[in-house]
Each structure stands twice: as structure tokens, then as C-alpha cells.
Fold this sequence. Notes:
This protein is about 45% helix and about 15% strand. By secondary structure, the protein is α+β, with helices and mostly antiparallel strands. It folds into three domains: about 1-245, 4-Layer Sandwich (Aldehyde Ferredoxin Oxidoreductase,  A, domain 1), CATH 3.60.9; about 285-485, Orthogonal Bundle (Aldehyde Ferredoxin Oxidoreductase Protein, subunit A, domain 2), CATH 1.10.569; about 510-669, no CATH class.
Amino acid sequence: MEITPPQKCKAAYLNASEHKLRIEEFPLEQALGPVSFALLCHRDRYRSFEVEPYNERNVLCFGAGSLAGARLYGYHRLIFAARSPLWKGFFISTMGGAARPLYHAGVDYVAVEGKSEDYLIAALKGAEDGTVESRFEEIREHDLLDIFQGYKGERGVYAVQQYTYDRFNELYRAGDKYMDFRIITVGPAALNTNFGSISSTVIRNGTFRVGVDDWAGRGGMGSLMAQGHRTVAIAYGGTYAGKTFTENIKDIKVVNKIFEEEFNERYTDYVIRSGTKYRYDPHVKSAGTFGVNMSVLGEWLLSFNWQSVNLSAGERKALYAFVKDHYLKQFNEEIVEPRTFATCGEPCPLTCKKIYHEHKKDYEPYEALGPNSGIFDQRAAERAVKEVEVMGFDAIEFGTVSSWVLESIHKGLLRKEEIGLEDDVAFDPRTYTIESSHQNAQAVIKLAELVAYRKGIGALLARGVRMAAKELDMRFADRVAKVGESFSDNTLYLSYGETGGISPAQYWAPGEFVPLPIQGKYLTNYTINSLPPRELGRSCAERAIKEMYSEELGICRFHRCWSERASETLLRRGRGIDLNLAEHCRELLQKIIEYDRKAGQYQVFWETKKTRNVIRRYLAEVRKKLPAEDGQLDRWIEKFNNSPEEAAKEYWEETRKGYEEIITRVTNE
């Protein structure tokens, strides 16, 4: 890496114990982006691999990319990184648009260190000259719980957000105008579970934009913030705008000039063409991750806690009719036709946020807490998703919990009374009717409160699916024997080390199950394909390197089709940084693997029958759809049919070897 002229970056260390803020400037090459900064902190300075995830040395790092402040769409994604209390290894979670106010706060990175005696809210404000002001206020636990229960008409995450706004909004006011600022908050799930999220709603002119909120959900970063540092909200923003660029890419005319010279296309046209799915796709006449995915996945769409993979193609098509003719139809009529679109908080032509009243609708939450939880109606899904958000959960992780619990009730492993239900759940995909969406949504709502506040069986589920499943197998051994199926075999997750685990993203694709250092996200190849496992592992590694561009540079991955091609050019012409970005990101992944090994974390073969069956059924189904040119797919299908356990282990091991060949450049024979 060469940087001409030499440049510096600025980090703020927010000490929750002492209620102090320390500012450090250091050469940019020491931490090019927020992932580099987090690894610098965790590997070299705090050595968090030596301690448990909730130790105060496990600093919560977040930051902006090195091109923040430029007129570049999507380059203001806020990147969180730390050792995950759920996955137990180094993890990255992201939040759209929330880095823009951090840039105006005058810092590139923040590290939350120490642990407050009472719960803490903090505020950072940057001035035009680059100085940073800080304020701190403690909240006693009983007062915080009261706020969660209700404050000015809001509950949970949104109540703490409103409370923090009331305490600090005047800090960001100059006369009759507000500065650019934002508030990141947690909910009760962060205090009591391993998969609490960090949430933030866009603020414009001092007013929350209802429904336009974003979440750093994966990996339990909210849980780390609340339990590791006893910090429940941080406000930040200001008036700083002093970053300089080698070519003035703060000016859209200069950005256009660069794109016309380098890529022979006007910038905004290039962005819109590359992001059709997220804006509006005329081919399917829908928009966003929900609309396009629900339109194109068809019979590959998951439902009923992944039970759908065991159904025939005809049965899956019948279930998909509930989506096409009702669930998706509602979305298109209520959101796409009237074009109720918004951005994540930064100017962007993709307007990827699809809003219906106070509900922002993305694929993953409305799939995990939709069809995969036996819900195929928008009104029912809205109730379920909103309650999960109010409690401050990672909606994908909680969707895995809820769908598993509902199937366990359906099969007799759990009783409905154990989660406070009067009505039965409807979780047989062959007899299901769409009217049952509401009773299943009610079960999800009840379960969310139990888990968020660790009530009854919720105290077990709060640990995460992997550990909860093993404990439930022991606690209810008599039921397991009677039913003939275990709790563990009715769920699926990715294991890491002795106790780490995370649920996969909501795609029936083997790339979501490859043994990677970071799973449950998109640092993988999650396309439907017929690649042999060794080649699949290699392709997942190659995709992980590219996806790391977005993490390290603070870019929204919805812009990846153009940003992966353009980022090296923009770094060179905008910041004077000459860098092989692919090699840099491969080295970041190597460092993550090295960190995890020091922390005692390692890949673990698929532990549950359902996980192994997902792969077996995938191979059989993909054989019907895609050609098997060299016969390898047929050979793997035969192996799984003859010896499922041995075949699964061999398949898993082959993908692991393929991944390592690319990342570590070690050839495995």
C-alpha cells in the first residue's frame, strides 16, 4: 500500500468506566478502514482473544470507510466489528447510512472500552475545526426497564432512542436548525440474550423518519454493547466537513468526470443500472430485496423451519402460491405501486428502503419471521417483525428460534402453554391455510417477550439455538424419546468452537453452510449452483474477498456490482491510495482466522440432522434444474444416498479445503 501524500485517520476511544473520550490520530496505513481498525484493536492492543466475549477488553469498534465524506452513493455504511458473543469469533455487522453523521462528528473510528457501573448513554459532537465534544449520562437499571416498557408512546429500542433524543438533541441544534446526527440504541434483548441488535432511525431536521430505521443485527453486537460495556445508546454527529481529497470527489461533477474517463459512463446512470434489483426491477415488476427475492425464488423459497426442503416440487409450488398470490401481492400493491421508497439516510438513487407506514420491509426479516415461521400475510408478519424489532433482536436469528420453537410445539417436543399460548400453532405445510398466519404471529410475539426478558423457557433460548437445543434435549429427554426426534435435529445452525453458533441466512444454498470464519452473512457464494464441494469452497473464498471490499471501505453491498469494480480507482484518485484491494482483503480474512485460532475458535462439522439433510436435498433438487457436466453431482448424490453421514463429512471437508486454498494459499491434497 502506498499513500501519497501521507495521511492520518482519527479514532475516538469512549471509556464507559471513566466517562471519558480520548482522541488518537495515527497514519492511515495502520488502519485503512473499520475492519483494519477493529483488528488493530482486538489483535494487537486489547488482545480480546484472551478473554470471554463480555469482558470489557472486547471493545466494540465501529467506523466509516476512508472515502466517507465524498459524493459517492453507498459509501457511508457504518461498520461494527468485535468478538461476537454469539459466534464467539471475530465478527462484522453493518448499518446503512449511519456513517454519514460519524463523518460529521469528526472521527473515522470509535472504540467503546471499559464498563459503566450503571447503564450509560453517551453523545459525541464534532465541530468544524475537528474538535470533538462528549457527554455522558447514567441510567439506573430499574429506570431503563421502565423506559423499555413505555416512554412517550414507544417501547423497547424505540423508547430508548426517544429518551436519548430528549436528553441530547439540543447538543446538535444550532439556532433553529439541527446538525446531521444519529442515535444508535439497543433493546431488552441486548441486556438478556446473546443476539441483541443495534438499531438506529434516520433523523432529518430534528425529526425521526418513522419506518426508516436500520439494524446492525448479525452477531449480537447489541448484546456486547449492553452486557460488555453497559452502554445502551450513543448519539453522534456535528458540523465537521474538513476531509480533503486528492481529487475533489465531494463535487459530483468531479465524480462524473472520473467515471466517464475510467468507465465510459455517467456515474448516476452506472449506479442505477447496477442496482436495478434494489430500486425497481421491471422484469418482475417489484422492488427491493423482499420484492425481487420473493418474485424469483419460487419453489426454492424456505418455509416452516426449512421443512419445505423435504416436500416435492409440486408441494413447494403450492406453498409458493401463498406468497405469489397474497404475501407478495400485498407488498406490490401497498409499496411498489405507490412507490413508498426511501433511503437509509444518505443521498442515493436506489431508494432501497420499501416502507409501509412504520414498517420497513426487507427479505431476510420478512422471510425468517414470515414463511419460515408459518406466516404468509403482511399484517400478521408486520406484527411479528415489529415486536421482534421493539425487543431489539437480530430478526434473522430470532426467526430461526421462532420457527424452531413452533415446529417443536407442532411435534410435541414443547407445549404451547410453555410459551403462554392458548391456541395451537399451525405448522404442518401440507394442511396449512393462510388464515393461520395470525395465530403463528401471536406465538412469535409471545416468544419474543419471553426470550427478551429471560422468562421461563426464554432463559434457555436466550443463549442461542445451538446451546439451547442441547440443554432442551437433556431437560426434556422423556419427550425426545417419545417423539423419536431431538430438539437439536429439528433446528439448524453453523457451529464455531465449543459453544459458538449462528443461524444461516435465509437461502437454500450450500454456500450458506460452508465452514467459514464468518458465517450467517454474505461473505460467501450463496447462488443456486451445481459446483463440486472443493470448487464451491474456492468460489466462497473468492466471493468473501470481494464482499470484504464493502466491509473495509464502509460500502453498502447493494452497490457492489459497481463499487467492486470502481473502488481501487476511487481510492487512488480520491485519496492517493495505491492498493491491491483484493490482496488487502484476503489478508484481512487471514488475520481474522489467526485471531479466532488464538481465541480457541475453529470450524465444526454440521451437528444437526436437519442441516445435513438440507445439503442432501439440495443436491437432489439442483440435479433436476441444472446440468451435471462431468458427473460429479451424480456421484455426490449417490454418496449421500448410500451413506449420508460419511458423505456429509466428506462434502464439508472438501468445501473447507477449497476455502483455505484461496485464503491461506495452502494446497490441500
